[in-house]
Amino acid sequence: MNVFEKFLASSPIFKNRDVLRHSYTPENLPHRGEQIEQLAILLSPALKGGLPSNIFIYGKTGTGKTATVKFVTNQLIEFSKKLSSNVSVHYINCEIIDTAYRVLASIAKGLGKNIPMTGWPTDQVYEEVCKTIDESNTKLIIVLDEIDKLAKKAEEALYSLTRINSDLKKAKVSLIGITNNLKFKSFLDARVISALSEEELVFPPYNAEQLEDILRQRAELAFNKDVIEDGVIELCAAIAAQEHGDARKALDLLRVSAEIAEREGANKVKVEHVKMAIKKIEADYVAETVKTLPIHTKILLYGMILLSENQDKFTTGEIYLIYRKLCSKISITPLTQRRISDLISELDMLGIVNSVVISKGRYGRTREVNIEADLSSIKTVLDEDYRLKELKNYENELKRLVKLLV
DNA sequence: CCTCCACCGGAAAGCCGGGTCA
DNA sequence: TGACCCGGCTTTCCGGTGGAGG
Q1: Is there a smaller number of Cβ atoms within 10 Å at the N or the C end of chain A?
Q2: Is A106 near strand B, with its CB below 7 A from some atom of it?
Q3: Domain end among A290, A324, A359
């Protein structure tokens, strides 16, 4: 039997797993009716030959911003074809396309004009883009997803985009900016903000009930009949609702649960699979986070793990002492305590450790730290770092030092 | 009630790599 | 091409502080 044969056999659980992926845009969006309606109203002038206002959309991750915009713009395109009015939409994810140059090149490309990846001065590209847009003679709607990623690098470009209509003769451009950064407004140039947010749309987080509806709708498409046991969807929804109502998280959780069930050879997804999925997602997060940490933070964590063998809470001072020791062993120049203090806060933000500032009276004021994430997941990742390999040789010496501290 | 510990955490300046502009 | 700028990281400096012990 060919090794691939068993993987080809149709899954007892999944009917179509793509439905659970982030990239999937569903045919209807539960509990976003209001936002869809508002967006449609704002965009409708494009169909009547008018110019829609620029729109700014806020909302945390997984609140359906991108899905809603894609949904509405797709409908807009569809409808404009019926009316044979000339409307087009260009979607840009600013996390991927993150410089002024690339944004402009991307717009040009969307209209069928290729611009070399590098080489031209930006203002020449801008002129070229204007020309191209004008030639196309269309109502162009540009969607800038994750616009905060762009703003830091290319504020100037944003500004010129907001004023592009004065450089156009026939065509018209309106912009839709999307961000999950609620503080975005405060650090952007006021001119740009006021130009961009002629209209604003806010996407509130979903609550547990709404998440359940979303999950049920997708589950219907993604799974075979009756493979999801009672309580599974409710649990996924409840967990995601706790973490700011993120639909993306809820869908991930459901998908991973089902994948675990499938791998186990089970023919139903049970509540216990969800519990395993929660653990797996958590472990994956820790592994991924720790892996990408800078070396000093890794050393710091390594030290904390050593400390945690003898005590479950430690102070900044203790951590710093061990940290310096570790640095000298692998000949890396240590950072100052002030910096380490900040690194500990960063680990706290990432949810790897937990730190609280406490006062021990006569014995000073310090931060009390304990490791929150799964120890063994952290260890595994740290052991993979070649720069920390050397430390294995000093294990006994280091353990003795740690004992002395207690 | 005062002291004084052991660190917190803000401010500012230095350093460095990468990008921009004339 | 070199001067210049920018943002992230780090150091230096330092005023501030909750509460156990006197």
Answers
A1: N
A2: no
A3: A290
Q: Dump the DSSP string for A282-348.
A: HHHHHHHHHHTS-HHHHHHHHHHHHHHTT-S-EEHHHHHHHHHHHHHHTT-PPPPHHHHHHHHHHHH
pLDDT tens string A166-215 = 777 788 889 998 888 776 666 666 677 777 778 889 999 999 999 999 99
Q: Are residues A40 and A168 in the same domain?
A: yes
Task: Please give the C-alpha separations between residue A48 and each of A40, A71, A116, A248, A358, in angstroms, as whole numbers.
Answer: 13, 20, 35, 35, 64
A137-146, A156-165, A234-243 — most confident range: A234-243
**In this structure, what token pair is assigned to residue A298?**
């890794």
Residues A66 and A147 in one domain: yes
Number of domains in chain A: 3
Q: Which domain holds residue A244?
A: 206-290
- Which of A272, A290, A308 is where one domain is finished? A290
| Strand B close to A366 by CB, under 7 A | yes
User: What is the rounded distance in angstroms from the CA atom of residue A308 to the CA atom of residue A314?
Assistant: 8
Q: Is residue A16 situated within a structural domain?
A: no
* pLDDT of A103: 79
Give yes or no for CB of A4 within 7 Å of strand B: no
Which amino acid residue lies closest to nucleotide B10, measuring CA to C1'?
A: A338
A298 & A332 share domain = yes
Lowest mean pLDDT: which of A32-41, A159-168, A293-302?
Answer: A159-168
